[in-house]
Amino acid sequence: GKRFDRVRLFGTIGYSITALISGIMLKYGFVSIFIMATVSLSTVALVSRTYPTGRKLKRSDEEIDRSSLPLQFYLLLLAGVASITIGAFGSTFLPVLTSERGFDVSSAGFAFSLMAFSEVPFLFFAEKVVERFGNTRLLVIGIFATGLRWFLTSMATSFPIFLLLQMLHGINYIVVYYSVMNYIHTRFEASKTTRALTIYWMSTTGLSYLLGSVLGGVLIRAFGIVRVYTATGITGMAIAIFFSLLFAALHKRTAFTNR
After folding, report:
1. Which of 119, 166, 216, 240 could cysteine-pair with 143, CB 3.0–4.6 Å?
2. Domain of residue 237, CATH code
3. Residue 259 falls within a domain, yes or no?
């Protein structure tokens, strides 16, 4: 079907547990991380072999829709790329920030674990939340929350406050990800869905993380990590306001939908 909240939920729980254990094991040296990764990936490989292999299907030309995707998709994609780029920067350099603040070496692991667990409440009620707010409004909320999180994180000098702020992750990436994915799966027929998903994943997993890590590293080297986190947070909130106004204007004048 078109529901993928439960699948994502179990992945989130697994990621959270792994991050928590990694943070604890890091105290015993980096070798322990490689050992844990080897055991985990070997287990995945063994378990995956128990699943039946489906036969490959070749679609006919009639089943492949080569018509252009709607403008709304590309606008949601652009907003998603901007948000995930900001999120990728913050997550990539979070261990560096914890070191800059003088927190314990395991603090990044605890932070990532808490970040993953914070997604669970949304995933339990994702369908109802989307129905209540709509995909575009939810996307804007996710972008603004991402900016707010990094802005506040840049000012956190206490580890407990730093950890609490990472709970905002529960309305960051997962909300942006889910709103765009839900739009694709509910608005497009199967003939267009694959192409839309390909463009989405290439843009976010590829472009966003590349920009977030590479450009972020350059900016941190030039201006310092705290300043860049602050500027990134402000930029994220400004982007959210811009897209909110843009979506509202398009909704009044065109067939642009909040759903």
Report:
1. 240
2. 1.20.1250.20
3. no
